[in-house]
Amino acid sequence: MMLKSKVTCTSIIVGRDCNERLLKFRPIEVSMQLLNYFTSARKSRTMPHNHKAKIAKYYWATPDLIQKAIDVAVKAQREWEKCPIEKRLEIWIKAANLMSKKYRQHLNAATMLGQSKSVIQAEIDSAAELIDFFKIQGYFVKDALKYKPISPTNTVLNSLRYRGMDGFVAAVSPFNFTAIGGNLSYTPALMGNAVLWKPSDTALLSNWWIFKICREAGVPPGVVNFVPCEGPVFGDTITASPYLSGINFTGSVPTFNRLWMQVGKNLAKYKNYPKLVGECGGKNYHFVHPSADVQTVVIGTIKSAFEFNGQKCSACSRMYIPESLWSKIKDGLLSTREKLKIGDVRDFSIFAGAVIDAAAFKRISGYIEHAKKSSDLEIIGGGQYDDSIGYFIQPTIITTKNPNEKIMTEEIFGPVLTIYVYKDSKLDETMKLVESSTPYALTGAIFTQDEQWAKRALEELKYTAGNFYVNDKSTGSVVGQQPFGGSRMSGTNDKAGGPHYALRWASPQAIKETFVPLKEYDYPYMRS
Fold it and tell me: Where in the numbering of this chain does the Aldehyde dehydrogenase domain appear (predicted)?
């Protein structure tokens, strides 16, 4: 094994020369693959920051092709599961090394051009986080394998082994993190499962690179099947299969709810109860105490709300600020916002690129237009948007008189930050709004220099966030350091990047071996 007992996170590397060279290329053809079967491309993707420039051609699988993928996966799973976990871990380490060196900048360039991430956001995601996922899962699995059940005498040996699940796992990944695509599909595979991976159409290029790298590392054909297709068609087909053993999902609440209901409807068909793991976003908050450090609040909020155009699941979208600090924080937010450069990601001086596609542009700009018309809302910074070249929306800051206004309660998933200024005397009352105003509980942050209040807030806001930050932004969880996930309508809180995540995709088997003959059917007390 190539795993060390001490695990450290992957270093961030931004290579301008290499990236600039890779950022110039012709569209790549992305084809569905089942074993060695390729289909021809029929659709195309463009760059979000330049929607006239095609970046990839691809094909949507039909229900028949998805069923073929299921058949391939079910057959491959039995052979793959026989592969010793030590061998699988070696493949994962090889894949991580390929991602770290040979293909690092290919992954970064694909993420920049396909998902309109700035160079640093791409490096954090498609290099560092993706590599960390592949490396640390092996560390956690090795640690889990150390557990040995108690064997009370030398006449008995108890053991536990982790099998793959009987059937196939469906992985449905989002556009916003290349690393999530790799984790959702390949962590179940590591545990002996075969996977149908439906990538987001808007992250096809980077996800295709992951698939190719893992095949080069030694993941056998049929273990992970790359299946671009229309979401409802994929959902209908996989949930109708008796071999469905699990769904690993990141996306919207309505989509996850639909999958869950379809599974419930089809329960009588399944060989197993499918495991459902989902992360569905949130309405993340920054809550500012009157004792907070203003500069920390300003910088943390700007980065959380506007990096990658607020398209991180954990991005700050609502903020609560005391009157006593409002003037200083307002000045800081607005002056910093003015410095943010939005544009083509091939310009390394930009802060953020474009939002992901026309649908996102329409949704986000709709909230901005709502703010312009509402008497409860005031746009104090930004508010401009333009899709003539790319889907560009300026970072927008809004204030609200109504803490329950829809812009404070609904997920926007864009560069829109709404602020409610509360009276210092209404601190306790305002804290209650954090929990009561939205159905989500993904990430949240408090800013304070008052240790006693921080302890109190940790308890009172306990169920408002699966990832909670004190004097730091609500984004930026690191694999192995802050395992990620939320509860309520934010998901099943299975903590990707944590020690138990991989085990969710195993079917443990307890084994008892007895070394002495069994001689008596009765018990001593029965003989008196």
Answer: 47-505
